[in-house]
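Budget justification note: compute hours in this period were largely spent on complex prediction jobs such as the one shown. Inputs:
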Amino acid sequence: MRLSKILTGATLALGLATGAAAQDKTKVGFIYVGPIGDGGWTYEHDKGRLAVEEHFGDQVETVYQESVPEGADAERAITQMALQGADLIFTTSFGYMDPTINVAKKFPDVKFEHATGYKQAENVSTYSARFYEGRAVQGHIAGQMTDSNIVGYIGSYPIPEVIRGINSAFIHARKVNPDVEFKIVWAYTWFDPAKEADAASVLIEQGADVILQHTDSTAPLAAAENAGDVIGFGQASDMAEYKPSPRVSSIIDNWAPYYIDRVQAVIDGTWESQDIWHGIDEGMVGIGEITDAVPDDIKASALELKDSIASGDYHPFTGPINKQDGSAWLAEGEVADDGTLLGMDFYVEGIEGKIPE
Amino acid sequence: MDLSAINPVLLIASLMVAATPLLLASVGELVVERSGVLNLGVEGMMITGAICGFAISVETGSPFTGFLAAMGGGALLSLLFAFLTQFALANQVASGLALTLFGLGLSALMGQGYVGIKPPATPRLDIPLLSDIPVLGRILFSHDLVLYFGIALTAVVWVLLKYTRVGLILRAVGENHDAAHALGFSVVGVRVVAIMFGGACAGLGGAYISLIRVPQWTEGMTAGIGWIALALVVFASWKPWRVLLGAYLFGGISVLQLNLQAAGIAIPVEYLAMSPYIVTILVLVSLSADKSRAPASLGRIFHASQ
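Corresponding output:
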């Protein structure tokens, strides 16, 4: 253990404890579901926070709290942040939805931004990224890269966002490989490296040679590397330390432009409640470098798919698509509307297994 | 549902990996409790061992040094407990709980700079010929050394407790510390050594999680294994081989339930998730229907004047 690291840790802890001194600064708070060093979801949100600091310099002050459990404890953490004088608070996980709404009622002058939820209020905006666009590209690569025709998928919680990702990846894997099958394991956590590693190992043992994950740590990639001959994708962040294989590409969340935009709005006094859902086009969803482990032709077609989604020529949920039970969902050429996508609670035809209640 | 997708050989191989941290921590706690001390700080010592082992192996590049550091870290933390309970004569339950809370906080602080780092890989044993035997080779001869150490430790502890003078003294201290004291044995000395042994084992178990099973450092990554180890010692009636059986059962069913989920079996995920706990308890409780009981001095404070 190096002393400097201990000291950094201690300073960090102190930094959290001391409140704001200067009142004229705009204070921006962030609530994180994992540690900022998770290398995935929270790491990217924190990069957005640092970008805000860099952009505004002395004009703003940012505070954050990491590893806040979803549920009752979140309400306490958000309240505390509001009491500390934050002007704008970003709550960055789905499970903070109700806590955010509850706290927002008590602090009408504080602005709140909740990620990936669907409940707005006068002072609560929601924002999310169209990750399913990135999932389509992943599915496209996964379907062609698998030799065993089994793709393993580690789900976190059975919520619309995750189900949407599974469906999108599956549709595009099937398009390029009619024999591909998905094996899905629900980890019931966003971040638990031990559990994620176990889930990845199990999927690999059952024949999966491509692992897709909707959990935030790099543990599944570590498991893939251990197994050899298994590929995976960076989730939420580039996870570049696993390049060129097992990590062959990634979905990168880029929150910085949005965060800067919203902080500016608060400073200008023009902030209004809104509902934002941006994708590859606006740059909120990025596709990380596709490495040389992927053959050139697959890489080229994957980039083509990405471009056509970005330009709006192609929507990942374009009919004909049936639901799992065989009933029709989208007719030929029909495109899914955002409402259905946001509340998605069904698998598309071809996926086996049931969504846990 | 496709049960044929589950490969029994790989299942057994990975259940051994999943069970090892639990086995190490339980065997250590078993020795502590046989000496008459109840240390509820297993979880805290495990997580401290996890970060000590992780940090040192990252800094030195050697997993072996890391495991040694983990044992040292766990033993050092347990000394705090030993001081509180053996010299300051504090309540063992309260001290143990405090040790867990302290260990969780301390490890989080120590780990600040180590989140998201890849540790050096621990080599897997690869014996030519033996590792190539079909089925048995994968199950028996292709793990990391720590896993074998865990099994060997169980055997050593069993022999030690059952057949040696050292074991007899330890048990005497645990069963009746006043009598042991009257015979001239150092009750406190024996207990301090036992507590440190328990700390080292728990630390090693924690490092097994952060260096081999995951491998990565995150706060609170032992996720309750220490508490399961405590329960396991009781349900195994303080007998080493039953601890091994319990740990493998627990690890096995944890892995099996994920396998069943991946194979698409139509049992709600929640039932699968609770199955390791239920099955392990049921099996061990039915085993302990014989006359085995707790060490008579367990949890009682000893002072030579009383």
